[in-house]
């Protein structure tokens, strides 16, 4: 059987001309979603246009409140770009602003359960960029 030993590294550039506010605020420790002023649809990660109304210039809303963990999974087999990390947890939480957030889950994990309370936090990753995660509130 033929086995190729070449490795290909890909880097993506994602245009964010209309949603650069999201990245700027992450660096300040704040997390934002967008909401359509016409129909009220809320988007996270933020979108530049409403998928329902097809309008631009959506309103920015800050996600501040405590959320609730809807589901989670433990990642044992990781993609190559995360192979340097120990096993980690990814979860989905719902927030009062009307959004669901998919992110890494951090905190005391020995009694982790669906329904646990979480806060959405910002961190600067080892790779040099800012990201968000779900911080478990003492369970």
TrEMBL record:
Q: Which Pfam families match?
A: OB_ChsH2_C (PF01796), zf-ChsH2 (PF12172)
Occurrences of domain ChsH2 rubredoxin-like zinc ribbon (ranges): 24-58
Stored InterPro entries: ChsH2_C, ChsH2_Znr, NA-bd_OB-fold, Thioester_dehydratase-like
Gene3D superfamilies per the UniProt record, alphabetical? 6.10.30.10
Superkingdom field = Archaea
| Domain ChsH2 C-terminal OB-fold: residue ranges | 60-121
How is this protein named in the record?
DNA-binding protein
């Amino acid at each position: 059987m033929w086995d190729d030993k070449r490795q290909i590294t890909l880097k993506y550039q994602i245009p964010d001309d209309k949603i650069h506010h999201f990245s700027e605020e992450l660096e300040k420790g704040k997390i934002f979603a967008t909401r359509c002023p016409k129909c009220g649809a809320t988007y996270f990660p933020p979108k530049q246009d409403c998928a329902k109304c097809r309008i631009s210039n959506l309103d920015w809303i800050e996600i501040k409140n405590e959320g609730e963990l809807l589901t989670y999974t433990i990642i044992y087999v990781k993609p190559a770009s995360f192979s340097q990390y120990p096993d980690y947890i990814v979860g989905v939480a719902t927030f009062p602003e009307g959004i669901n957030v998919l992110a890494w889950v951090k905190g005391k994990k020995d009694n982790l359960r669906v329904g646990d309370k979480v806060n959405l936090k910002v961190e600067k990753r080892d790779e040099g960029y800012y990201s968000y995660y779900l911080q478990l509130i003492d369970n």
